[in-house]
Amino acid sequence: MDVRRQPEIGEIEERFVALVEGRLSRDEVDRWAASWMADDDLVWEDLAWWALDRLHGVDLLAGPDGGYLHDDEQVRDWLGELRRRRAA
Q: Phi first, then psi: what are they for 68, rounded to 5°?
């Protein structure tokens, strides 16, 4: 039985910050978000689900050249949007 505590929006934001600052890899953040999104027993607030959805897939490659589908600037923009929406 999994006894993990569902992360709150602040914890999700912390994952964005760690990714932007390079303390966590895209793969680590993607796997973390995916593990939460896969749990159908959880109920999420809209903003938390939106943020998890952005983190899940953040490691997708745009093509064979190795670049990411969502570049660093876009990830920083998502973090900014998350902060604006939290403050509203």
A: -80, 145
